[in-house]
Design brief:
The protein is of the alpha/beta class and 328 residues long. The protein folds into two domains: 167 residues, Bordetella uptake gene, domain 1 (D-Maltodextrin-Binding Protein, domain 2); 97 residues, Periplasmic binding protein-like II (D-Maltodextrin-Binding Protein, domain 2). Helix 7 links the parallel strand 5 and strand 6. The N and C termini lie far apart (59 Å).
Length: 328
């Protein structure tokens, strides 16, 4: 390098280093003062469903812990993709967050024209909870076990309707149909709230409902529980057998939820939200209340959550292919 270029090169290096240090200082400073205004928590389903119920509970606790309002905004539709895209395209400043469920890992395989890249455009803050999926029927349907439901459906093909509020609640029943060799008709709703309303009214005969949406109605005798989708009995519902116990040994499906931020959100902001969220999820009082609503709280690191979502995408891609379900 010539003597003429060396001073200029040195000056450019110093300028770049100064800019980098300045950016790092500004990022750290932003994280230390965050949040300074209201945070929007987008729930991409209708109000009243399991994801919405847990999201609102977490929003209240986050408001208290962060000293700023956390407002839940419902953006239902398209299996959660409408609300998810809002967050994927939002400014990465920590003021627009997403609270989503299992559909987040299913949509990339079932919707080829999804308007964003699940892994590229959204960063996981933490998993929050798992929720048992319970196979229920309306009491007017004369079946009391999984075997009786399968026998009825075989004798009456396409007569029974089942409700779903997203692919996360539709696909378990589609897999159940495929594994049992039966055919029931899906009726899709914009949220588990309205889906449960029609199930309670008898307009829908059966469903794989999230525990948060159906346990209270099971206890009240308004719905009849046949089995859970987990591969082990739940401590929340120990008297309900698993689908595997009832004759479909390879069946497994549970619901999960997690909180996300737009990619590019400062790492220090992600870490602060993660630490705050995990303290809430580990709080005994919050855990007890969540369990009463059908949730088992489960906090993770952002890295573990991102890895989990990637595994879910792979798992459901394989399951959809095996079941012969066509992308929409």
């Amino acid at each position: 390098m010539s003597h003429f270029l060396r001073p200029r090169f040195f000056t450019l290096c110093c300028t770049y280093a100064a800019c980098l240090l300045s950016c790092l200082w500004l990022t750290e400073s932003f994280a230390q003062t965050y949040p300074t205004r209201t945070i929007r928590l987008i729930v991409p389903y209708a109000a009243g469903g399991g994801t919405d119920v847990l999201g609102r509970g977490l929003a209240q606790k986050l408001s208290e812990a962060l000293g700023q309002s956390v407002i839940v905004e419902n953006r239902p539709g398209a299996d959660g993709m409408i609300g998810s895209e809002v967050v994927a395209r939002a400014a990465p400043d920590g003021y627009t967050l997403l609270f989503n469920s299992s559909s987040h890992g299913i949509n990339p395989s079932i919707h080829p024209n999804i308007g964003f890249d699940t892994m590229r455009d959204l960063r996981c803050i933490s998993q929050t909870a798992t929720q048992q999926m319970i196979l229920v029927v309306h009491p007017t349907l004369a079946v009391n076990t999984v075997k009786e439901l399968i026998a009825y459906a075989k004798a009456n093909p396409n007569v029974l309707n089942f409700s779903s509020s997203s692919k996360a609640t539709q696909l378990p029943m589609e897999l159940f149909n495929w594994m049992a060799g039966i055919s029931m008709t899906n009726v899709l709703y914009k949220g588990s709230g309205p889906a449960t309303t029609d199930l309670l009214a008898g307009r829908i005969q059966t469903s794989f409902g999230g525990a948060a949406s159906v346990v209270q109605h099971i206890n009240a005798g308004k719905l009849r529980a046949l089995a859970i989708g987990d591969n082990r009995r739940s401590q929340l519902t120990p008297n309900i057998p698993t689908v595997a116990e009832e004759g479909l040994p390879d069946f497994y499906s549970v619901l999960w939820s997690a909180m996300f931020a737009p990619s590019g959100t400062p790492p220090a902001v992600i870490e602060r939200l993660n630490a705050t969220l995990n303290r809430i999820l580990q709080d005994p009082q919050f855990k007890t209340k969540a369990e009463q609503q059908g949730f088992e709280t489960d906090g993770t690191t952002p890295q573990a959550c991102d890895s989990f979502v990637q595994k879910e995408i792979t798992k459901w891609a394989d399951a959809i292919k095996q079941a012969g379900i066509k992308p929409e």
